[in-house]
Specification:
By secondary structure, this protein is α/β, with parallel strands linked by helices. Helix content is about 35%, strand content about 15%. It has helices spanning about 15-40, 45-50, 70-85, 105-115, 135-140, 160-165, 175-180, 205-210, 250-265, 340-355, 360-370; strands spanning about 55-60, 85-90, 145-155, 155, 190-195, 220-225, 290, 305, 310-315, 325. The strands form 2 sheets. Strands 1, 2, 3, 4, 5 and 6 form a 6-stranded mixed sheet that branches. Strands 7-8-9-10 form a 4-stranded antiparallel sheet, with no helix packed on it. Strand 5, helix 8 (about 205-210) and strand 6 form a beta-alpha-beta unit. Helix 1 (about 15-40) crosses helix 4 (about 105-115) and helix 3 (about 70-85) packs across helix 9. The longest helix is centred in the first third of the chain and has 27 residues, at about 15-40. It is globular.
């Protein structure tokens, strides 16, 4: 048991755990209703979507070196936003102290306790007063648009970015709206830029991995771009395979324009603004699909998108001649971009926990056994 302002009780009964998880599921449905309400109502949000004279702010978040290609592309995207009359902000994650998520479950346990009436105030992440993540996300939540520009290392986004993004759970937007910590859903739109020294074959997980970090913050990706052959600072000014866009800098400028266009479009009318032929999945434009496996409740699709979870069959696009995911009639029931569909994952968690607690008598001795088990490790002596 932990005491203090971030009191987290770890001694729950099985019934209490089931009650907390059930409440969390209900909260997702409540938040979905609230989102629909905000979309329909004549609220401040709706007013912001109307007209070119609206006030809006866009933040660019870089995770690469200062003076590098990613930072240049992000700055050019912000140029387009500023030209459209928007307020802009640029941060580079290298300038901030970002601790890794410890997996303590402090945030989700607090959410459960508040739902059960055991805690009155949500204190957020247990690390929020120890590093800069909370300040960054609070500022991000004041923006209507965000552009992420991240270098690619070993096919995936850099660790500087993933360390930051894996802290998002403590800021689950639907929950923060429900408890009033965030007063209004900003319906934030996002643009993604991956920057690598090679072509797509050495960046094959980059954009998809970036997209997978958008769900928890409920950010809608309206454009994405893979900057290729940018191994040295300045490469972005020399070449780019986007002839129709006029090169990488021009493509970044276009992304900024697309972000502005999306912000100025009513939420229920927003759509994909990037390359229409990008990716294999027509729902999120991911290039990653895999042979589907049976889900916990028996749902199964021949093929699934690894990012958004859309299900269907692989077909040949008649226009391009390339493979495409043809989404099944019920293929979006697990769409991770949809709050209702995401909530179904909590039903899975509920069932998994129920089954786990039914085996506690046999599990506890094994947990104690492995907790006490020790092995030689590497010890590093420092002066």
């Amino acid at each position: 048991m932990r005491e203090g302002p971030l009191f987290i009780c770890t001694r729950y009964s099985a019934n209490t755990e089931r009650a907390l998880v059930a409440w969390t599921v209900r909260m997702f449905y409540v938040c979905r209703t609230l989102f629909a309400k905000y979309t329909r109502a004549e609220s401040v949000s709706k007013m912001l979507w109307r007209g070119a004279t609206m006030s809006f702010k866009v933040m660019a978040i870089c995770a690469g070196r200062h003076g590098g290609n990613g930072e240049a592309l992000a700055k050019e995207a912000l140029c387009a936003v500023r030209e459209a009359g928007g307020e802009v902000e640029l941060i580079n994650l290298f300038d901030y102290n970002i601790l890794p998520c410890t997996g303590c479950e402090g945030c989700t346990m607090q959410m459960g306790k508040m739902g059960a009436g055991l805690q009155k105030e949500y204190h957020g992440c247990v690390l929020k007063n120890k590093d800069d993540v909370d300040a960054i996300i609070r500022e991000l939540q004041t923006c209507q648009g965000v552009i992420f520009s991240v270098p690619t290392y070993d096919l995936t986004p850099s660790s500087v970015y993933t360390r930051f993004a894996q802290r998002f759970l403590a800021y689950e937007l639907s929950f923060l709206l429900a408890i009033g910590a965030v007063k209004e859903n900003p319906h934030t739109v996002a643009g993604l830029i991956s920057v690598g020294g090679s072509m797509h074959d050495w960046q094959s997980l980059a954009l998809e991995s970036l997209q997978a970090t958008m769900f928890t913050m409920s950010m809608t990706v309206v454009d994405r771009y893979m900057a290729q052959r940018d191994g040295r600072p300045g490469n972005a000014f020399v070449w780019g395979d986007d002839v129709e866009w006029g090169g990488q800098i021009a493509r970044a400028h276009k992304m900024g324009e697309n972000i502005v266009k999306a912000i100025r479009t009513p939420v229920d009318e927003r759509c994909w603004l990037g390359d229409p032929d990008d990716g294999v999945c027509p729902n999120c434009h991911s290039s990653l699909v895999y042979p589907g496996d049976k889900h916990w409740d028996g749902v199964e699709f021949p093929w699934e998108c690894a990012v958004c979870g859309a299900g269907g069959d692989i077909v040949t696009d008649e226009r391009t001649g390339r493979p495409k995911l043809k989404i099944a009639e019920n293929g979006l029931i697990r769409d991770r971009n949809d709050d209702h569909a995401r909530a179904e994952h909590l039903n899975e968690i509920n069932k998994t926990r129920d089954e786990f607690f039914a085996h506690m008598d046999e599990v506890k001795p094994l947990m104690e056994k492995y907790a006490k088990m020790t092995y030689p490790t590497l010890e590093i002596k420092r002066d």
